[in-house]
Amino acid sequence: MENLVFRKAEINDITPIWEILQQSINRRKKDGSTQWQDGYPNLETVKNDIEKAQNYVLIQDDKIIATAALIFNYEPAYDEIEGKWLSDGDFLVVHRVGVSDEVAGKGFAKKLFMILEDFAKENDIFSIKVDTNFDNVPMLKILEKLGYTYCGEVYFRGSARKAFEKILN
């Protein structure tokens, strides 16, 4: 996990980001998960994330190996939770996390989340909120290992998602 660079995505990163997300979509399918099996996310989603300066990439040896959409203080679906968030202040939302097939299963998704926690703190944000499908076992394991607290359910496009929050020190 050496030579890692974390930075905001640029428009010329769209192809490798989309390839990573497609690989992640295929892994979810192979795992038997229903997450991301409905045409979302798609290339337009990636383009919009980059245009809004909300997409970030993790690079190793000049190659993009992971991606995530990061949004400060805004996720309408999080306004109505069946449960309760740990905090009501500023927060960082993590969406559309993807890791390339080349590094999948080697701890890079967990490393990405650790980098995101540092990124949040550097921006004076001490809460990270994230959601995932009930059957996305790899993501559920990462969130558990990193100490995220299950807060309840939120709904996206008519489907329930498990919602988590971590308060950063």
Secondary-structure map:
Blueprint: E1 4-8, H1 14-30, H2 43-51, E2 55-60, E3 63-72, E4 82-83, E5 92-99, H3 108-122, E6 127-132, H4 137-145, E7 149-156, E8 159-167
Parallel strand pairs: 5-6
Antiparallel strand pairs: 1-2, 2-3, 3-5, 4-7, 6-8, 7-8
Question: Short description, anyone?
Answer:
One of its GO terms (molecular function) is acyltransferase activity, transferring groups other than amino-acyl groups. By secondary structure, the chain is of the alpha+beta class.
Show unreliable segments: none
General form: globular
Distance between the termini: 24 Å
Strand content: 25-35%
CATH hierarchy, class: Alpha Beta
Reported for the largest beta sheet, the result is: 8 strands, mixed
Query: What is the CATH topology classification name?
Result: Aminopeptidase
What proportion of the residues is helical, as a percent range?
25-40%
Q: For the largest beta sheet, what order do the strands appear in spatially?
A: 1-2-3-5-6-8-7-4
CATH superfamily: Gcn5-related N-acetyltransferase (GNAT)
Radius of gyration equals 15 Å
In the residues, how many domains can be counted? 1
* Backbone structural class: alpha+beta
The overall pLDDT average reads 96
Following the backbone from N to C, one meets helices and strands in this order, namely EHHEEEEHEHEE
Examine the secondary-structure arrangement and name the CATH architecture.
3-Layer(aba) Sandwich
Pfam families: Acetyltransf_1
Domain N-acetyltransferase: 4-169
Keywords: Transferase
InterPro entries: Acyl_CoA_acyltransferase, GNAT_dom
